[in-house]
Amino acid sequence: MSTDLYVEVLRFYAGQMALLDSLDLEGYADTFTEDGVTHHVHRGQKLEGRGALLEHARAALPRYREVVVRHWNDNYRIEQGDDGALTVAYGSLVTLTDKEGQVRFESTYAVTDVLVRVDGRLRTRSRTLLRDRPAAA
Amino acid sequence: MSTDLYVEVLRFYAGQMALLDSLDLEGYADTFTEDGVTHHVHRGQKLEGRGALLEHARAALPRYREVVVRHWNDNYRIEQGDDGALTVAYGSLVTLTDKEGQVRFESTYAVTDVLVRVDGRLRTRSRTLLRDRPAAA
Amino acid sequence: MSTDLYVEVLRFYAGQMALLDSLDLEGYADTFTEDGVTHHVHRGQKLEGRGALLEHARAALPRYREVVVRHWNDNYRIEQGDDGALTVAYGSLVTLTDKEGQVRFESTYAVTDVLVRVDGRLRTRSRTLLRDRPAAA
């Protein structure tokens, strides 16, 4: 994989996470393909299509009036398949900052995405989120 | 924007944050332009010029004898204006580690900088820090 | 240093940290040179050679059945010596997530590595970890 493509993927995530964290839900949904799937494995929930994603995100909005959410991702490993699709694996740490500036943390997550290029732009075709769980759990 | 420029900006921040976190205040101030402005919006404070920045930072030093501060930035979005200046937006998480190794967190922040090139080197011309604040606050 | 090399180093760490955090200890040890040294300065411990590293890591495994560990590194500063070896300095934040999804933090660290190229692949020849300690401590 070229340096250009690796950095393009870093920039894609910077933009996508900023849309999510600023609660620009339409903008966030638009970074997915029309049929994009978000799979929250730990709660057995699969959102199929941009519409389902958006509906789910909107329903969660009231919860995000009391805290600012930020996603801190790291360690992006990227592989390109024969069809050009990119499989991207990374860790995600989620902070919740309240009105006093207190920072709390959600669990950490392992995320695996598939990105494809549509009309020249990268988009997420699937996102699989696995909440971190110790071996002994 | 080219991959080269995006990565140059990532490297600029890695260096600048390392100077700040190691309390090399002169080195940190030197990464700003002579007239560089730091604007802490949440406390209505505007430090105009490298001298004011340095004076403010030196006054805060005693506070940093008891903890090690580290800045963890993420999701750098960069846009280049017609004049070549770069507007860089990112999130910042600040840790404070005490002598027992306990980690505390300051609030999270949204930061927007303007970078310009002076004698071939990138420097910060302005930094605007906005403490994260929930919609309901 | 070229953009290509800087990004190659970012990708090296993404891969190495993912091996460590997924407890693939053989895979992790294999990212070191055969004689690679890990120096935990804060506890005066020097592990010399891949075998010693692996033995030490295996002994720590039981501790990691109860929590998921993740390393969040930032601010990579890289310098290349005349012999081609790369000195890489960065900050490291370590999270421990338990079975309830509660996130705890180890101390923050300053890490300095030397990377060399062996058979075309980057490997760690030495890693020096310094636990953050305030000036007044």
Automatic annotation (TrEMBL), chains A, B, C:
It comes from the Bacteria. Signal peptide: none annotated. Transmembrane segments: none annotated. Pfam families: SnoaL_4. InterPro entries: NTF2-like_dom_sf, SnoaL-like. Residues 5-128 form the SnoaL-like domain. This is Actinorhodin biosynthesis protein ActVIA.
